[in-house]
Amino acid sequence: MTVSLEMMEQGLRFTINHVKAFIQDSILTSDADGLSLNRTTVNLEALEALCDPGETFLVGRHCRKQLSKGDCSANVPCEILNWVKDEAPDALLRFVAAESYEEIYKIIFGDMFVPIWRTLCGCPDFVSSAISCVKNYDGSLFEVIDNIMTQGEFDEIVMSLDWKSVRTVIEGVLQTGCGEEGCLEDMTLHQTRIGQVLDNTFGGQVGCLSLKRVEEEIIGLMLSLVHEGDAENVKAYIDECLKLWDALMCDERCSSEMQRTFYSSCCIKQASQQLNSRKMRKNFTAVFENVWSLLSEEEPPSGVVNKYLSMFDPAKFCAGKTRVYEEFNKQCKEA
């Protein structure tokens, strides 16, 4: 079997078309009142219960008490529910109609993730409230969905997770978009440009903003998962990611254009450095090793999280090969 960018395109296109067909056939419905979600396949019962201040059967008494402490946490489920009912159908319809990867990436991130992210930015206490709800859940949800998971299975997972690290990671990731005004818009533009690169690639372009110039590294990435053990596969995959990122971002012939396209926002620079802080690296690693222990009997591969995160600080990652990212960082400090 020959591995190529064409195979990558076929795989992406097959997946997207499959998702679009599922949305059209099972998620969206329309009637005299307009477009809406198909309630036979989209179950909003849990969100509706969280939004109802008097409901304790599904939510549980502890969670209801946690959400009723007077802070903004009680409002978040209702804001998300309203978005799901009022805005999500139109966003999904735009996704179905999108023809380019640029459109698809903009819709997924800007129209779907950003509204939820912005809601959570407005209530930083919600993460701790939600984690408390999960850790101390005493509702009857599993009597309703016992075909998916039992209360005992849920409790076993909850007891196994490193919640302190999980909370730190979630709050840290959220904070990257909640700091400066306009950060989420900058992140949306960043994602949109990733889609633009895919359009350029599959349209036959061969410039800096095309994956054609790193086809060898992409094929290496696609062929990396061939080892017998999970740990070996993860190590090989991360190593190939580093090679690909080096070719994409650090090549002196294209680094200036890559910087202007993907690293021209001080918000993106700040987010990259925040995710690469010692605190975040430590907690990302803790979460990775924690989840790994639940899924595999092998020892987790060491150092892979730090390696992976290093890609998102291009000034350090490309040090000695190009200075364009370092020079941009200085501009942000001076601004």
Provide an overview of this structure:
- By secondary structure, the chain is mainly alpha-helical.
- It has a domain at 210-335.
- It has helices at residues 5-27, 45-51, 61-67, 76-86, 88-97, 101-121, 126-135, 141-144, 151-160, 163-178, 183-202, 215-222, 230-249, 255-262, 266-275, 278-295, 304-310, 314-317, 324-334; strands at residues 28-31, 34-37.
- A two-stranded antiparallel ribbon has the order 1-2.
- A hairpin with a 2-residue loop joins strand 1 and strand 2.
- Helix 5 runs antiparallel to helix 6 (101-121).
- The radius of gyration is 22 Å and the shape is globular.
- The mean pLDDT is 93.
How many beta-strand segments? 2
* Average pLDDT reading: 93
How large is the share of residues in beta strands? under 5%
Major sheet summary line: 2 strands, antiparallel
- SSE pattern: HEEHHHHHHHHHHHHHHHHHH
The strands making up the biggest β-sheet line up spatially as 1-2
Count up the helices: 19
* Overall geometry: globular
Using only CA atoms, what is the Rg?
A: 22 Å
Share of residues in helices:
55-70%
List keywords for this structure.
single chain, 335 residues, mainly alpha, two-stranded antiparallel ribbon, 19 helices, 2 strands, 67% helix, globular
